[in-house]
Amino acid sequence: MSVFDPEEQNKQPDSKIVAGFERLSQVFRTLLWDQAKAQQLSPIQVQLLIFIRYHGADKNNVSYLAREFGVTKPTISDAVKVLEEKKLVRRVADQADSRRYSLLLSPAGKKVVASSENFTVPFSDWLAQRGQKEKEALWQSLSGLIAALNENGTISIQRHCFNCTHYRKKGGAHFCSLLDAPLHSNDLRIDCPEHRE
Ligand code: SF4
User: Fold this and answer.
1) 65 CB under 6 A from ligand 1?
2) pTM of the predicted structure, to 2 decimals
3) 169 in helix, strand or coil?
4) Which site among 22, 93, 126, 140 is 20 to 30 Å from 31 CA-CA?
5) All domains of the chain, ordered by start, with CATH?
């Protein structure tokens, strides 16, 4: 029994859905690869630039990036070395501990992000055509799947409400004690800046 077997997919909706996720991951890889080629960078280098652009100093270091992208520290160090040589990122020493540093984008690095991060547009365009209810249902399923994969260790790092210290259940509903507000399914986050494990 294989989810890649078309006959199995015809018999089992679950197989068809898993095969669909796999197909989507291929599409993301291809779109990212095209952007990376255009920038004369590797896909992981583009991903690092985008991540650094939108996250704080506490996350923009080799150890965190290795966990975020599920690769080894030497892989991240090699990619960062190239980005430094191309003057797309620079190191900023930690004021409390000079052995530690975080990475910051240079103006050239920000330009690369601006012209490469739109590789997701085919997905955004499709979503723009969907109704609110369809999006909410999709988000509910997706966030549940991401949380479950994080819980069973398949995804190593996730800044999701369900594994955040501020998350509560209040009267059977989702609640954020930091925001002191209920969280509707639509409000659940997967990359919250205030997330605390
Ligand atoms: S701080 Fe962010 S991740 Fe944590 S529960 Fe509140 S909204 Fe969710």
Assistant:
1) no
2) 0.90
3) strand
4) 140
5) 13-120 (1.10.10.10), 131-187 (no CATH)
